[in-house]
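Researcher: Please generate the 3D structure of the following complex. Treat every line as part of one assembly.
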Amino acid sequence: MVWVKKAIKLKVNGEVKELEVEPWKTLLEVLREDLGLTSVKEGCGTGDCGSCTVILNGKAVNSCLVLAVDADGGEVLTVEGLSDGSKLHPLQEAFIKYGAIQCGFCTSGMIMAAKALLDENPNPTPEEIKEALSGNICRCAGYSNIVKAILAVAKGEIK
Amino acid sequence: MSNYSFVGKPTPRLDGAEKATGRAVYVSDLELPGMLYAKILRSPLPHARIVSIDVSEAQALPGVKAVITGRDTLGVRYGFVDTPSLPADEPPLAEDKVRYVGEPVAAVAAVSEEIAERALRLIKVKYEELPAVFDAEEAMKEGAPKIHEVIKPTAPSFWQEWGVARPSKEQVVVNNVASTCFVSYGDVDKGFKEAYLVREDVFKTSPHSHCCMETHDVVASYNPTTGFLDVWTGHMGFPIKQYWLARTLGLPVSKVRIRRIHIGGVFGGKIELQPHEFIAAFLSKKLGKPVKIVLTREEDLESSRSSQHLAKIYLKTGVTKDGLLVAQHAKVIGDCGAYRGSAPVFIFLAHAFSQPIYHIPNYKYEAYAVYTNKQVRVPKRGHGAPEFRFAMESQLDMLAEELGMDPAEIRLKNFRKKGDVLPNGDILHSCGLTEGLQKLVDRIKWTEKRRKGKEGEKAYGVGLGVAAMFNGAQYYPFGSTAVVRLNEDGKAVVFTGAAEFGQGSDTLMAQITAETLGLRLNDVIVISGDSVLCPIDMHNWLSGGTFVSGRAVKLAAEDAKRQLLEVAAEMLEASPEDLEVKEGWVRVKGQPERGITVSQAVRRHILTRGGKQIVGVGHTKAIPDDPSVNWYPSLHTARGRFTGAYSFTVAGAEVEVDIATGKVRVLKVTVAHDCGFPINPQMVEAQVEGQVAMGIGQALFEELATSRHGRVLNRTLADYKVARFTDMPEVETVHVITVDPNGPFGGKEVGEGVLGALPAAIANAVANAIGTWIKEIPMRPYTVLKAIKERSRS
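Model: Done. Output below.
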C-alpha cells in the first residue's frame, strides 16, 4: 500500500510547524508522535473521554476526532504551550492547590477544556463548568475539586 | 495531634506540577531506540478447541519481526490465585483451547502498530467450536459444558517456595466449580428458631469495569547481554508482577526490573500480571528489542481483566423482636469467567469484609466461584464488599421496616465495638462505627429527611450503608521494608515499594518522613515502586498502603532519626533525648541557640563512623499485633488472621426518583469514614469523592453487558457509562478519628471502604423514595420503573 503524504502547516503552541502527514493520521497522533507533545493523551480514541482535548482555533476539540489534514492552517494550543514550567498558568496552579489532580492522565485535557471555557466565558457558574467539561472523564473523580479550581481562577483568586 | 507540622494537614500532591504541565511520563508516552510494537490476536469464540494455527503468511509480511503462539511459551500457567489446592490455571497465551471471547491466541511484533495489526489478519486459526456456558448457576449443573477438567500445577507456588505451604496438587474441577468457601459458627438452625423475624431474599450484582483513563499498556525491554528485563507498566506494587514475569519467562526474580513510571489509575485492575505484559516481555526476550503494547479502549473493556465479579447472593437473616441479629445464612455464587482470576478471593472477602461490622452469634456462609465462558475477573475497589454490603444492608432495612424500627437504630444495636475479637482472631484495635453513624445521622438530619416523601413527579429518599475494609493482608512477599537515607545536604530519600498510582502515596510517605524526622516537606524525596531500587513491599493491596507500607516508612524514619540524634548529641554535647529536630535543624530543647543543621550532622556521621551514611531501615509484616502470622487465611475455610486493622465507613445517600421515568438522581452523599487519622485530609476527601463517583455508577448505571455469544456489548465509553461532572452529587466527608495504635500516626485505609458502603446506601435511599425494594444493581430506569409499577398494582 502506498499512501501519498500531505504537507500541512500548523501553528502549535505559538510555533509554526510544517509537516508531512499520512492522510489518515489524527491530530492526536501528529501531536504525540510527530511533535512529541505527550501531554495529549489517548483515553479512548472515539471522542468519548476528553483526555486528548486541545484548543484548535480557539475551541476545545477532541484531537482524536480531528484528522491532521483537516487542521491544516490551524492554530493549536496544548498544555505544553501554557507554561514553560517556571511560571505556571493560573489554571495549573489552581489544579495543584485544590487537589484537582490524582492520577493525572485526564489532567491536560481537563485544563485545556477549562481554558477554552474561560476564554469564552470568563465568569462561569458551577453548572456551566460542569456542562462545558461533561465530555471529559476523570475516573479518579476529582470532579468537585476541578470545579473549585476553575472557579478560583475565574474569580481571580489565583493569578 | 495539633502539634504535628505535616501529618493531619491538607497537603497538595508532590507531583502536581509535573502532571499539570503535561511533563509526567506514562507508559504510552515512552519511546525507546529500536522499539517494536505488538498486537494481540484474540479469540472470536467463547469456547473452542484450537485445531491449528498457521502464522506463515503473517511472519512473511515485511516489517514483522516475530509471531508467537501458546506453543512458543514455557507452558507455565499463572493466575491471581496459585495455592496448594488451587494451582494457577491460566496460560498466558492460549494453548489447546480458548475459553472466552478475547482470549489471546497469538501475537505479532513489528516495526509499527499498523503492520502488526495487518499481520494479525494473516494468521489463520482453525477452531472447533465447543458448547459454551455463560451463567454461573447453569455452569454448576450436571451436563454443563466443561470449561476446565483437571488443572495440573506447572510450577511450585510461592507459598511452597517460602516454606509456608505444602506442594501444590492437581485440582479436579467438578461442575465448573473453581473454588469454594465455607464458614460456620454458632448454630444457625437454632438461631433461626429463636428469631422473631426471618427474611430470605436473593440479590444480584453485575460486572463492571475499572475503566482507568489510561488503558492497560506496557513497554518491556530485554537486554541479552546483561540478562535484565526492564518493564514499564501500571502496577500496585512491583513484587507480584516481577514474580510472575520471572516465573513465566524463566528469569531470576532480581533480573526482572519493574520500573517506576506515572500510572493513569488502577482501582484494582492493574494488580496482577496480565497477558499483554507477558506477551510484550516474551517478545522482547525473544528479539532483544524493546516491545510496546497499548491496548485500545475496546480491548480494555472486552478482553483485559478490566472487570469486577458478578454475584448472586442468597441471604437469610433472623432478628429478635428488639432487632438483634441472631442468625444469618448466606450463599454466594461468584462468576469468575474463563479462568479463576480473583474469584476465590472475592468470595472469601465478601465474608471477611462483613465480619467486623455486626455481631451475629449464629452464622453460616457458603460460597462458590464458578467458571463460565466470559472474561476473567480481577479485583476492583471493594472486591466483594460493595456486592455483599448491598445485599445485607438492603435486607437489614427490610427487617427494620417489618419491625417498625429505624434503620439507624437497628444498626446501632448490632454494631461491633472497639476491642471486639472476631471469630478468626482479628482484633478491632480501633472502630468508629457507632461514632460514625451517630455523626452521620446528625449531619444529614436523618429523621427529618426520611419523611420527605413525594413532590409531584419526584420521590425523595435517604438511605444508609455500612462497610468495613482490611488494612493489608499477609501475602507475597510476606513483608514490607522501607529505607530512609539522609544525604549530606540534609535531605532525606525514602525508598518504598508502595506504588504511586494517583492516590497520593508518595506525598503521604513524604509527610510521614518529614514529620518523623523534623525535616521540611521539600527536603524529602520519595523513590517508590521500582523493583531494583526499592526493598520488598506487600503492595498497595487490600488497602495496606498507609497501614503497612506507611508503617514501614515511619519505622525507617525513626531509625534514621535515632542515628541522627546520636551524632548530633556528640556535636552539641547533650544527650539525644534532650534534642529536637525541626525544619532541618537539630537543637537542644529550650536552648534554640545550641543547634546544628541535619546536613552538618550527616557529614559528621560519615566522617566519624568509618564512612557510614545514615540509613534508616523500617520493616513490618501486615499484622503487627501478631508477627508470627505467615499465611494468608485459608480461602476455603476463612481460618487464620485476615488483617491488622479495619477501617469503617457509614455512608448516607439522598436521592430523587423520577416516578414517570424511573431515573434516579443522587443529590447528596455524606460519608463518615474512620480512617484512624487522616494523614492528608485533602487526599482522604479525594479518595472519598472518587469512590462516590464509582459507587453511583455501580448502583445506577455501570454494567458490562454480555451477548448470548459471550461478547461484551458495550465496548466504548459512549456505551459503557461512567460518572461524569453532571452525574456528581454534593459530597461531604465527616472524618471519624479513632487513631489506630498500629497505624502510622494512627492512620488507616481510605481507598476502598466507601465504595463498599455506597451502593447499599443508594439502594436503601431508592427504596425509601419509592416504597419498594429492588434487589439488583445497577438500578437502571426501567428496573426502577418496573418496581414502581408493580408496587402501585399491589
